[in-house]
Amino acid sequence: DPRIVIMILQYGACFGTELAMNAQLATHFRTYFQMEAGGASVLAGCFGLMNLFARSLGGIVSDQLFAKFGFPGRIWAQFLGLFFEGLFLLAFGFVDNSQQWYVALIVLLFFSTFVQMSEGTSYGIVPFMNPKQLACTSALVGAGGNLGAVIALWCFYKPLGPINTLLPFKVHGVYVLVLALTSPAFYWKDKGGMFHKASAPEFQKPEPEPVADKDNA
């Protein structure tokens, strides 16, 4: 199913990005911004700190949009999470060492929030992709996170880092943005898609309940 392949790549663009950042950020702050190892580690740790709430927040946003717009709301939540993740990763790549370290940290916190939210929105969609093969689908998507880290490290950071320190972050950001734009491929006849309504009642936008007539009460 090509939709599962796309979800594997999209999950690699969020969880895989998280793994790649865990490997890169401390060194980036220490060498590029000429910080002490302890301070660089603290700033890099702030990336993971967003896990305290942001992943759950992504799931909550997906549920809220589903309640308001039906299944297309979950796909829009996924698209927006990945889009802003890519946007802030690209912005992080433009923060050079002529600026203060806290500028990079502020951008990093927004970037991290959307990384974790995208992980939550991903698993707002996964259970519905192929319910009969849910365990297999979940395992494949989860493995896509590790695949995403391998792609990021070996295609972006290791070959491009020696050329320009910030270039891998920029290329990686564009890569995430491109994968965000594949979200319209998530379409099922019964569930709908980003621009199509669902045909199955359980996935349609909830209709407001009629207000009781006070005169007839």
Description of the molecule:
70% of the residues lie in helices and 0% in strands. The radius of gyration is 20 Å and the shape is elongated. The chain is built from 7 helices and no strands. It is mostly helical. Helix 1 (2-32) runs antiparallel to helix 5 (101-129).
Which structural traits does this protein have?
about 220 residues; mainly alpha
List the helices and strands and how they pair.
Blueprint: H1 2-32, H2 37-49, H3 54-69, H4 71-92, H5 101-129, H6 134-160, H7 167-180
Helix pairs in contact: 1-2, 1-5, 1-6, 1-7, 2-5, 3-4, 3-5, 4-5, 4-7, 5-6, 6-7
Biggest β-sheet: count, sense, barrel? none
Overall pLDDT level = 92
Query: β content, as a range?
Result: under 5%
What low-confidence regions span 5 or more consecutive residues with pLDDT below 50? none
| Sheet/helix structural class | mainly alpha
State the order of secondary-structure elements, H for helix, E for strand: HHHHHHH
What is the molecular shape? Answer: elongated
C-alpha Rg (nearest Å):
20 Å
Count of DSSP helices?
Answer: 7
Termini separation: 53 Å
What share of the residues lie within helices? Answer: over 70%
Number of strands: 0
Summarize the structure.
It is built from seven helices and no strands. It is an all-alpha fold. The relative contact order is 0.20.
